Amino acid sequence: MSKVAVVYWSGTGNTEAMANAVLKGAKDAGAQAEIFTADSFGADQTDSFDGIALGCPAMGAEELEDGEFLPMYESIKGKLSGKKVVLFGSYGWGDGEWMRNWDEEVKALGANVAADFVIANEAPDDEATAACEKLGAALA
Q1: 4-13, 59-68, 103-112, 129-138: least confident range
Q2: Is the pTM of this model over 0.85?
Q3: How far is CA 77 from the centre of its chain?
Q4: Average pLDDT score over residue span 29-47
Q5: 21-44 burial by CB neighbour count: b if 16+ within 10 A, else e?
Q6: In terms of C-beta density within 10 A (0-12 exposed, 13-18 middle, 19 or more buried), how is residue 104 classed?
Q7: What is the helix (H) or strand (E) element at residue 87, kind and residue range?
Q8: Cα separation of 98 and 96, whole Å?
Q9: Given 21, 93, 98, 107, which is the most exposed site by the fewest CB atoms within 10 A?
């Protein structure tokens, strides 16, 4: 049984809803899955998981949230090489540039990206929720 961490930051609840769908998908596929907010996860926990789902909405000029999520992400970047990873997040403007940039960075770090990222404009609709469940299953 694989062990999966779903780690996210959410300001409005949209990315949190996506995180819960990823968690459900991982559990439904047989993984032992846990959910964490960005401020409760760090580099010392990374090695305990076979796969990590990272979720963060677009902030500012299509950037990762820099108060809690970015410091956590910076702390685990060195441990992502060879790790199964998926990405998700919501946005309210722009075209998803923050996610494309993040996806490229994670791949450049050597992560084993298990599925294409999922983004949702504002609250995730049924299609985005189903896609998030598939992300979780891909990590399982």
Answers
A1: 59-68
A2: yes
A3: 13
A4: 97
A5: bbbbbbbebebebbbbebeebeee
A6: exposed
A7: strand 84-91
A8: 5
A9: 93
